[in-house]
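Weekly structure sync, notes
Attendees: PL (lead), two postdocs, one rotation student
Agenda item 3: pending single-chain targets
PL asked that the sequence for the first pending target be pasted directly into the notes so everyone works from the same version. It is reproduced below exactly as submitted, 198 residues in total.
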Amino acid sequence: MEHLLQKHLVLHCAGYFSSSKQTQLCKIKTKPQMPVLNLTLASAQETQNLGALLAQFKSELPSVWLLQGDLGSGKTTFSQGLAKGLGIKEHLTSPTFSLVNEYHFANGQTLFHFDLYRLGSLEELYEIGIEDYLRDPQAFSLIEWPEHFLEAFPPPYLHLFFHHAEQGRQAEIHLPEAYAMLEIPLRKALKTLHVTIF
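Predicted structure, written out during the meeting:
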């Protein structure tokens, strides 16, 4: 018999009777969890450095990255570092009013940088052709403010969260389960940034 203890725990129990009492043997199993890397970024430069470093793993990670966080928490700063890491020469700015900006880099690839802050409904997102962008085999999509439209983004995707902190910012990198093998290489690479990882 199975009982869900919490979000991530499953309790398996098997009971049997002896002549004097009932004994239960129970084992707790954990469901596979998405690996999460937590970092403290002390400055805007460290936030850009994180983007540049993750650009080195682009070919090993999903082609859709979701950037979630409050205003001024570092999403666009991270994106600027990522663009530099990809070899994009143009200065990346947030597409708040254009909704999506397009940048070209090595081997005919395209970075689509979205800002969904001004969108009011899922229908509006489909109207701008989000499905076509996501299906482009030569495209890499970076999406700010995705939280109200998550159903539009089929997994797997890399999900990053940015938070204000007392000193700088905090970032969370949520790896899809299918990419869990990258956790150790990423941790090793992140240590070269000399940022706090926990």
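Discussion points:
- Confidence is low (pLDDT under 50) at residues 1-31.
- The radius of gyration is 21 Å.
Action: rotation student to compare against the earlier draft before next sync.
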